[in-house]
Design goal:
This protein is of the alpha/beta class. The protein is built from twelve helices and 14 strands.
Length: 344
């Protein structure tokens, strides 16, 4: 197969950041995605309805004038979040609230330290129909970083799913066979997003032959056996798994510093990379469901009108992207060949 058409896709998990960065990230996403779930972990985080409204306006201001891309907004949960916060956020169109265990990833220091204290908030979300998005890792120092997703499942997610059977939950950017198996075994109100980096790479791509900071993300890349479990499940076309890039830009000097900021910026090539993966798996017929149908169906939103076209054509992902402020971002798989290309 040398060309395909799929219904216009959505990205069900990404980071736009803020300020000047929006002038890069929003157009890069809007080139092929109609909608995107926008993460709220800014500084300060998006914790109330007014902040949601203002951030959405900043995103729309960065949208190309001839584009109808739609940001889908989320609320950042803390242990100070109230039921009223959920109600007011829902009234201004917020579709989901995001649970970060404190310290789990970029700008998560203000996040949740006691999950059980949030159970009344989950009850309110269940009542008003707001989805719960979960970064599913524990952050205890004594738990090996490669085991933190499984530990979160065993310690927390099992209880949350059992306690709130009518609450729609997205287990975001899953990385392990344990997560795949848990989602498959759970009720239809639990689904998961999968990133391009976790489909394409494993921890050898982070550590073998030297540390590769631009492949560093959280949750961290896992063993090849876990990578293969992710690839296997997307190739089945199961409706509980859908596209979420976790595209997360950092300026080059931050990625290559002692900070080692976590995140892979994939917005400019994500749909092409996913297509390459599905081609490798001989599962191109499952791409449209993964990219365009399953997420919309799970969120209870209409599928998009229109199509995008991709052709099997080699091209090289740019080595770097110049930001409006003159600094650079190194995109995911910079300088490497991609075998599928979005056709204008």
């Amino acid at each position: 197969m040398t060309h395909i058409k799929i219904q216009t896709p959505d990205d069900w998990h990404l980071h736009f950041r803020d300020g000047d960065m929006l002038n890069e990230t929003v157009p890069a996403t809007a080139r092929c995605f109609k909608r995107a779930i926008v993460m709220p972990n800014l500084v300060p985080p998006i914790t109330d309805a007014n902040m949601v409204v203002n951030y959405r306006k900043r995103i729309l201001d960065a949208r190309p004038s001839d584009n109808n891309f739609e940001p889908l907004m989320t609320l950042y949960l803390t242990n100070d979040t109230t039921r009223e916060d959920i109600i007011l956020a829902k009234e201004v169109g917020t579709v989901a609230a995001k649970l970060y265990p404190a310290g789990a990833t970029t700008h998560s220091d203000a996040a949740v330290k006691s999950l059980e204290d949030l159970y009344p908030i989950f009850e309110e979300m269940q009542e008003v129909g707001m989805l719960l998005l979960i970064h599913g890792e524990v952050t205890d120092n004594h738990i090996d970083i490669f085991d933190r997703e499984k530990e979160f499942i065993d310690r927390h997610l099992t209880k949350i799913v059992a306690s709130f059977p009518d609450l729609k939950i997205v287990f975001e950017h899953i990385t392990t066979k344990d997560a795949v198996d848990f989602v498959l075994a759970s009720n239809d109100n639990l689904a998961a997003t999968i990133t391009p980096q976790h489909l394409l790479l494993n921890r050898n791509d982070l550590l073998a032959g030297g540390i590769r900071p631009h492949n560093y993300c959280l949750p961290v890349l896992k063993r090849g056996t876990h990578q293969q479990a992710l690839r296997k499940v997307v190739a089945t076309g199961n409706k509980k798994f859908f596209l979420g890039t976790d595209s997360a830009p950092h300026e080059k000097h931050m990625k290559e510093s002692s900070c080692g900021c976590a995140g892979c910026y994939s917005a400019r090539s994500a749909i092409e990379i996913y297509t390459q993966v599905f081609d490798e798996l001989d599962a191109l017929d499952k791409l449209e469901g993964f990219a365009s149908h399953h997420g919309a169906d799970f969120y209870g939103l209409p599928r998009n009108n229109g199509v995008i076209k991709l052709v099997k054509e080699d091209w090289i992902i740019p080595e770097q992207i110049i930001l409006p402020n003159g600094n650079t971002v190194v995109p995911f798989l910079a300088g490497q060949k991609c075998t599928w290309k979005l056709k204008d």
